[in-house]
């Protein structure tokens, strides 16, 4: 699966009394899908996944899937502490038509998890049995465990482990993983213009859905294949390193990251995409300018204020952020005033 670009790890909206607000979830997803993001991560850390019941997770997956545009990549956050429960949730996401599964590093039993063989066995077991390609998710600020680059490099050899979301914030670690996995090359299906082909696009193309044209499309070159009514080609991609720190997006892309899963993209998807687009066009002056614009807002809204900050910033930018679940608390009036000032010039 091609995972190049910007992915917001979308929030889970709640009513004031705490139930999931599915109508707002659908409205948010529809709006994100009109932005230039490559896709969505459903039930990552920003989605408060750890605070949801198993049934709520499944319901959120289903609602987001039904609201998402077919051409946007859908990544399901399915990481749970045990391999067996991770697989159960991954299998459910696959049945809905998700494109990949993002699996957080297990971390509760830290004495055991600090032994490389435990982490290797966990991810290999999940990847062996998963119907979806696996994205490793490293978030030491929340888990207290930082997966070593050497373990990631070893796991990257597995044919069903295609990427990592690296949120530790170390550009040097990103550079090391990119350099050490450069030999890995895999062929993926992309569109004629080198964009991702999702499971829903393929399903529509082969089932006579909206992507099928009258008489079928004609190949534009010998390298183009026709799948149903969809023009596709093959693209060679490596082990894909995505980052999770918006304030270090530009330097991370400069050393080989292919994209990012950014909480700041929930409230400012276009501002994040502009950095990615400038880097892709090799316009480093513009990329640096766009990066400097979001450094302070991303650090304070996301890193310091966390999900309450992201949700309030979403409210400012036309999305529904709304309340958080305990033990998280809403922002104070002073914190809201700070976010108002930081986001004043960052609009969609």
Describe it:
The chain is an alpha/beta fold and 348 residues long. 43% of the residues lie in helices and 16% in strands. The strands form two sheets. The chain has a nine-stranded parallel sheet. Strands 8-10-9 form a three-stranded antiparallel sheet, with helices on one face. The protein has 15 helices and twelve strands.
Concise synopsis of the structure shown:
The protein contains 15 helices and 12 strands. It is an alpha/beta fold and 348 residues long. It has a 9-stranded parallel sheet with strand order 1-12-11-7-6-5-4-3-2.
Q: Tell me the name of the CATH homologous superfamily of the largest domain.
A: Aldolase class I
What number of domains?
Answer: 2
Helical content band: 40-55%
Per the CATH scheme, the topology name of the largest domain is TIM Barrel
Main sheet makeup: 9 strands, parallel
- State mean pLDDT (0 to 100 scale): 94
Q: Could you tell me how far the N terminus lies from the C terminus, measured between alpha carbons in angstroms?
A: 28 Å
Which residues form runs of ≥5 with pLDDT under 50?
209-216
Counting DSSP H or I runs of 4 or more residues, the number of helices is: 15
- Supply the helix-strand structural class: alpha/beta
Total beta-strand segments: 12
Q: Approximately what portion of the residues adopt beta-strand conformation?
A: 15-25%
Give the neighbour order of strands across the main sheet.
1-12-11-7-6-5-4-3-2
Rg over alpha carbons: 19 Å
Shape: globular
Instruction: Please write the string of helix (H) and strand (E) elements.
Output: EEHEHEHEHHEHHEHEHEEEHEHHHHH
- CATH uppermost class of the largest domain: Alpha Beta
Which architecture of the largest domain would the CATH scheme give at its second level? Answer: Alpha-Beta Barrel
